[in-house]
Amino acid sequence: QLIMAAPTLEAIRYSRGKLQLLDQLKLPTETVFMDVPDCDVCWTAIKDMNVRGAPAIAIAAALAMAVELDGAKATLAAAGDVSAFVATKMDHLNTSRPTAVNLGEAVERIKKLAASLDGSGADAVEAVIAECEGMLAADIANNRAIGSFGADALCAAVGKPAGAPIRVLTHCNTGSLATAGFGTALGVVRALRETDRLEHVYCNETRPYNQGARLTAYEIAFEKMPGTLICDSAAAALMAKGKVDAVVVGADRVADNGDTANKIGTYNLAVSAAYHDVPFFVAAPVSTLDPSTAKGADIVIEDRPATEITHSLGKRVAAEGIDVWNPSFDVTPAALIAGIITEKGVVRETASGDFAVGKFVAEVTGSDAPAPKLSGPPSFVALDCDTVLDYCAAKPEVAAALGGAEGRAAWSSKEVGDGNINFVYIVSNGAGGAIIVKQGLPFVRVVGESWPLTQERVRYEAEALMIAHGYCPQHVPKVHLYDAPMSVIVMRYLEPPHIILRGGIIAGTVYPKLAAHVGEYLAATLFGSSALAIGCEALRKARQAFGQNEDMCALTEQVIFTEPYAKADNNHWTSPQLDDAAAALRTDSELKSAICSLKRRFACDGAALLHGDLHTGSIMCTESTTFVIDHEFAFYGPLGFDIGAFLANLFLAYLAQDGYEGDRSSQREWLLACVKETWATFERRFVQLWNERGVSAGNAGLTPAALYDAGAGAEGDAAAALRAHQAAYMREVLTDSFGYAGAKMTRRIVGIAHVADLESIKDQDARAKCERRALACGRRFMLEAKGLSIEAAVAMAEELRA
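Structure (tokenized):
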């Protein structure tokens, strides 16, 4: 590092093969230039905010690419080698600040050029370096144009006599230190001063990194402008005193409708300006305008480390144990903006009340602007296999689980799972570590946007996962992060050889510990969240706090308890083989009565917190481990619903075996043994937990000690009375389990979503034969549930298959 007094105000020093960046974290007390020999060092400088400001970040990244490319040119024989080298390095740099659109634009521009080149590596290297160097000169020229357009726009908006000086307030740092030179918003202030139209400039301190106090104040003082530093919280008071004629700020990204992401605190400033009738402008180059982002809510906002708020000069200044929210940016709605100043002119509000950013970009660049991407609720952006990597890099706790964002270049992702309503990605760090990123879409994935769903279901899933993990950590993966605006859950990755249970069953694999593990999971979660364990009052509070998961319950009521027994567009089955069976369901009075009774208990019996959709696609396992996932249907309901769902999938798998090639006798035997062992384990462990924790003092529990504990004064044979009550209770749960198992089996044959166990049978006649047996089994389970034992149910399935 070289420490010296800077003779001119600059943030970037570059010559061919050498790049130095002004370490802005040390300003104003020291002027230190950091050597940046490669893209990795530049990535860290951007991430740590040694260099900051959207234009400067983009220029620094481009020049770092030029320096590293110059050093590596001897190893790059062909243009294709150069293209691959550039793509890897630029993709990594892009993760350092995902909110800054200039960086992304520079990355794509340089990658596109490199990919278009043919010929020798030396010629390709020279072309890419020339492109990177050209961006430096172009940025300075663009900033001067922004300054000229902006000075005129502010003076016109203020309405003072021509040539009269004005008073301007700005935020963060948007000057020479944030760009290649001159600046954007501070460039407007400079242009006002050069034309004798600046009376005074005020700058906010800009917490928590104090870029205004450390950097903008430094530039103002360096150039001896008439300026004053104020606290962020003083801006509204300053406006109230009539001391601000206009506000001008920079931008990190401007959406198609004009919504603008900028340093945190900008939105506050815009609201205050609107209240005091002070015109509020945004100054940014055209490269910051992003027509592909429909609105501000679609912009991913980077979270910064908590220590930026809790610590000062390395010492903690906030109380231990306090949570911290520290977003780098906020989004100012277009309605609060008077104009967006660019090097090509000022973008103005249209008659419809927004800014036609895409149209402006197309006009000034001579090319079609990209159409805005489909967007969801506020702050939601649908991820894909590329953007999920940027998302993970922007979340400190997620990046930490992958070994740190500095390793982003080695990360990869792939979409997995067979879900009907979500995207699920595995994000790997290239060194054996990985996480799961699950995002809920605002509609049913298998249908599309015509069937909307609330993304509140993701909150239900995240909370249910965390609660279930607390009850049964050995069979529920840990949640690393829940991001409500993005409808994202990041959780432990279940590494190979873990696979989705359903796939293993179809392949003929036997899992010797599955039944014991699922039985334990069911007992631990259903007992732990029931009034038997926590008492009636606590259960009522828990249900109220968790909510009803209305949309997912309504979906269940539609596709399980209604549509299979009526004419519905969503229904489908193996046709024509099962046409008669499907028609019979619609006229079966006994079955309609049974399904409505099951629906009533589903809706009214909030006994415990359920998984809500416990099928073999919601379980991952090996021969020695089992984990339950996908809790998006979680709700408080009858215990038998979860149990019945799992048993139904075992019976469906059993009845599908005859459709597969080869000898599946051992698989059939194991599946029926699983049915028996799952219930036996559940019943034994549930009663054991009940005996240990369910007989409680006071009146809150379902089995109070006053009735069932002789030591607490219970009269008669208290122990025998408890055993009798437990037996009756478990009988009710088993009856419900068979009813719900039958309902689940039926809907998987004729409803909207089927199971791969049966769907994978290619011979339609063979499949229909298996499905017809499953329908018969499901019907008998629903109608004969009260008299069935586990052994009788297994015998029934064997009889129907015979």
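Residues 121-158 form the longest helix (38 residues). Confidence is low (pLDDT under 50) at residues 1-8.
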